Amino acid sequence: MEKKKEELLTLAIESSCDETSAAVLRGGREILANIISTQIPIHQKFGGVVPEIASRKHIVNIMPVIDECLRTAGVELKDIDQVAVTYGPGLVGALLVGVSAAKSLAFSLGKPLIGVNHLEGHIFANFLAAPDLEPPFMALVVSGGHTALVDVQGYNRFRMMGQTRDDAAGEAFDKIARVMGLPYPGGPRIDALAKEGNPLAIDFPQALTEKGNYEFSFSGLKSAVLNYINSEKMKGHELNKADIAASFQRSVIEVLVGKAFQAVKEAGRDTLVLAGGVAANSGLEARLREEAEKQGVRFLYPDKILCTDNAAMIGCRGYYQALDGGYSDLYLNAVPGLSLTDK
Fold it and tell me: 315 and 274, same structural domain?
């Protein structure tokens, strides 16, 4: 007897950067297990992710993480109905570990394979956080490698409103943190330090602020902060790191918030969701919530565990992709530069 779609069990795998994760979902939104093994302590000593080390750790971790996931979910491999996996974007070596594991499992079990776009996965984390959420809505994706505004018109229909021309917001956070001598990962350190500083202390630039422009650029802001730090050092001034962090963070947040609500209005949406690793930034979340209340827009964002790279969001995206026939064959390969495009 064929299972109902809401009873389908999806095994999902995520290995795009420095987290090895596996999850089991029943239907599209019920998480039975979501196991994440992070490599942050390993990469901290290098001040950032070392791709070769990340790939090797994924090889070591992938099967134990999958085994633990199945045990936690209380299911066996034979119970799995489909296998979803991140195939891009990300670090090519890291992606290949997850893709190879997923292909092997799908082949050996005789089950369908679903290749998932990591960025779409971040957006779909909101379906797990808010069970009543339905398209259409606007999504602001802010992660270490990407910044984008996406009009989610349906479960499998997206319109790219705009994305970054250069550095992503999360990347800028990490680079500025490194220059300021803060440990990796830099984003949470900047966020914490910003709470102690004056966000109006330093007037850092905001790029591409003209109305109707939904693209982002943070390279100029990054350069302005670096120039300010170097200038202060040359003058022999002691750096007020809290003020630098607060002023830098304000410049990033104001651009993100301004463009997000412009896009909501243009697309005629009543809901805005936040997605990606930088969604865990308390300053960004608070400012978006404040503006949403002012404009009468529903604002949602996932729990912190679902903001980070995790397999549950990949399983959720994979489930809805499969309902639309979005399966992959066993020739699926890693695509490190995969973009989020209109569908």
Answer: no
Quickly count: other Cβ atoms within 10 Å of residue 275's Cβ: 30
- At 186, list the tokens: 């830099």
Angle at 206 between CA 204 and CA 207, to 5 degrees: 135
Residues 116 and 72 in one domain: yes
Residue for token pair 């809290």: 242
Structurally, how many domains does the chain consist of?
Answer: 2
29 and 144 fall within a common domain: no
Residue 211, Cβ density class (10 Å: 0-12 exposed, 13-18 middle, ≥19 buried):
exposed
Average pLDDT over residues 317-341: 94
Q: Model pTM?
A: 0.94
Distance CA 99, CA 108 (A): 14
Q: Are strands 147-154 and 137-142 parallel, antiparallel or unpaired?
A: antiparallel
**ω into 205 cis (within 30 of 0):** no
Confidence band, pLDDT 50/70/90 cuts, at residue 343 = low
Please report, in angstroms and rounded to a whole number, the separation of the first and last CA atoms in the chain.
34
Residue 212 belongs to some domain of the structure: yes
Same domain, 174 and 79: no
In sequence order, what DSSP letters do the residues of 306-331 get, joined into one string?
A: HHSS-HHHHHHHHHHHHHTT--B-TT
Which residues, other chains included, contact 274 with Cβ-Cβ below 8 Å and sequence gap of 6+? Answer: 126, 139, 140, 142, 284, 285, 288, 299, 300, 301, 302
State yes or no: pLDDT of 83 exceeds 60: yes
Residue where the block lists tokens 């002012």: 294
